[in-house]
Design a protein that fits this description.
Order of helices and strands: HEEHHHHEEEEH
Radius of gyration: 21 Å
Number of domains: 2
Number of strands: 6
Mean pLDDT: 91
Strand order of the largest sheet: 1-2
Largest sheet: 2 strands, antiparallel
Number of helices: 6
């Protein structure tokens, strides 16, 4: 290998790269953990639900990002406040701590009970979406909640809270 090729390879290797996708252009350090990441939130179209932004994905879909946004103290990996924030949906806590938008992943995740549609019994995978929830009653996207059911769910929920 010529000296010029070797030097240019070393320059490329020393340039920072996004810790999620590996790209080396238009990078920024995250506010939460100080890792290099694509400065690409401008690519996200509002209400598109696209997952095309490394920066947005890390900020919005990780415990690291949540921990920072909520201004919790200490390390997100053992933050009891973060765990408490997700205690009603531990499946989401586990996903936020272990998905592909993390630089480091949660090593020990709590066990969680799967979520099922209250009408048809179909397993609902919370991170995948495709469901609705009203007063802790989950429905898959095939089982709508009628107005009569809505009133009963709300009434039962209010009774339970007393």
């Amino acid at each position: 290998m010529s000296v010029n090729k070797k030097n240019s390879k070393n320059k490329i290797d020393s340039k920072p790269k996004c810790g999620l996708c590996g790209k080396r252009k238009k990078l920024v350090k995250t506010d939460c953990c100080g890792n290099w990441i694509c400065d690409d939130e401008d690519k996200y179209a509002l209400f598109s639900y696209a997952r095309n932004s490394c920066s947005r994905n890390h900020r919005r879909f990780t415990l690291c990002g949540h921990h920072n946004a909520e201004e919790h103290k200490g390390d997100w990996k053992n933050c009891q406040e973060c765990l408490k924030d997700f205690e009603h949906e531990l499946e989401m806590y586990v996903w936020y701590g272990t998905n592909e938008y993390n630089f480091t992943k949660l090593e020990s995740s709590p066990a969680f009970e799967p979520t099922y549609c209250s009408k048809c019994g179909k397993r609902i995978v919370l991170p995948d979406g495709g469901y609705s929830v009203l007063c802790d009653v989950y429905r898959c996207d095939q089982c709508e909640i009628t107005e009569k059911e809505r009133e009963k769910i709300i009434r039962d929920y209010k009774r339970k809270k007393k």
